[in-house]
Design brief:
CATH superfamily: Cyclic phosphodiesterase
Number of strands: 10
Distance between the termini: 29 Å
Number of helices: 3
Shape: globular
Largest sheet: 6 strands, antiparallel
Helix content: 10-25%
CATH architecture: Alpha-Beta Complex
CATH topology: Cyclic Phosphodiesterase, Chain: A
Length: 173
């Protein structure tokens, strides 16, 4: 199964981002559904059941050792590469470092050594296209206290991907 560790934004943050980007549309964009907006702290790739079980244990250890973290969104949308529109999120670097250290023996992703870039993915370009530059710079802001992290599986189906929660940990360190 394909796993990742996520921090989910508070409802009022999702509402604020949605208000900021509503009305900005383009036929070359594939918008991510709002219930899927999250910050990926670590992408583990495809792992077997044994590694998935180890990931559940590891996320529990991270939660017990890590304090809640303040996530700060904005100040405006930006592009990741040429094909991803995102909302930058600051304040989660230390939490992501802890998650990545705990997940290192489990992580099967070829991208595991890429640096953490906190963001909510809002849209992707369709068919190897590029996000029009006018989408970068849409003002948005918000913050929330990250008190839980979730180990999620990403299951592909004909409608795209759907996420299922594998484990959740409260940050209490």
């Amino acid at each position: 199964m394909r796993l990742f560790v996520a921090a989910w934004p508070a409802g009022q943050v999702v509402d604020g981002v949605a208000s900021a980007v509503d009305g900005h549309d383009d036929p070359g964009l594939r918008w991510v559904e709002r219930p899927k907006w999250h910050v990926t702290l670590d992408f583990l790739g495809s792992v077997d059941d044994e590694r998935a079980s180890a990931a559940v244990d590891a996320i529990a250890r991270v939660g017990a050792a890590s304090p809640p973290a303040r996530a700060v969104l904005g100040p405006e949308t930006s592009l990741l590469g040429r094909s991803v529109l995102c909302a930058p999120v600051a304040g989660l670097d230390e939490l992501a470092r802890s998650v990545r250290e705990a997940m290192a023996p489990i992580n099967a992703s070829p991208d595991r050594d890429r640096p953490f870039v906190g963001h909510l993915t809002l849209a992707r370009a369709q068919r190897r296209g590029s996000i029009p530059r006018r989408f970068a710079g849409i003002a948005l802001s918000g913050s929330w206290l990250v008190e839980t992290i979730a180990l999620m599986s990403s299951v592909s189906d004909e409608g795209g991907s759907r996420y299922e929660t594998v484990g959740v940990a409260m940050l209490s360190g």
